[in-house]
């Protein structure tokens, strides 16, 4: 546990600057920092292309938690641009945030931003992705190796259900610059590698998708399928990559025949599961992650101690980072309703058009 650093900067100009960002909020009933100033917290999201969750879930839940805490906040999205990421960070530091929370685009850019914030006396948090070699005081995420394990076990269960013997499995890994992608791979390879070694499964094409780019994933998978037409299963690291593979399979009328995994429980991913085109996804309760991150941020801004439930080792920085890790859940067709009941997606957005009858069949009422 650590104490954060509080910057007592308060002026009409600063307040106007934060308010102009459109995502900031102040609640007269909220708590204040150790010098009486209302804490100000900046958040940089990575993009809206790699996964819908950043804008549809994280932004919403972070904003709700900040407002409930009565602090001022500024949430911005770098939209995959490393230069914009650094520019946004510089602006937030100049505008006097007490805490900077980031989802890095890669560890190099993230480290530069975190180190600059630290040099300016701004407390820092890695949100969802650990910045290798970075200096964040806390890390908030999910047990990402467990996420991968659930994907590997999910694919194995779906292949068994379809009665596929010695399946040829292709793998679409996440971005090689994302530490989470390495952890997911550690998890699912821990399930699949023993099956390859025993000869129960055949290891097929295995490739990373730069920047989690869904369009590039489709191109990569099309090439995989051309070189290995007998692919029986696809370990796709998230719903976007999974949907890219499904689109290619659909062209050959093989969607639903080849099990495909995913992650993030996006509306698109859940609809693919209801339609039988996707085997499973992994639900990560982003609301819990966001609320945990906000609790840490507010504690840092107020100079208070914060509770964590884990320690994550950063091999590049050779340090142990105090962390809060939430638990993921495997989602198949029979428990898609869990995601709706938890409020992560609504029945209205999920059960549209042809999916209405599929929702009813899946017990989504």
From TrEMBL:
Stored Gene3D superfamilies: 3.40.50.2300
Single GO molecular function: carbohydrate binding
Pfam families for this protein: Peripla_BP_4
Keywords, alphabetical: Signal
Any one Gene Ontology cellular component term annotated for this protein: outer membrane-bounded periplasmic space
Span of the signal peptide: 1-22
Domain of life: Bacteria
Domain Periplasmic binding protein residue range list: 41-305
Localization annotation: Cell envelope
Matches recorded under PANTHER family: D-XYLOSE-BINDING PERIPLASMIC PROTEIN
Stated name of the protein: Substrate-binding domain-containing protein
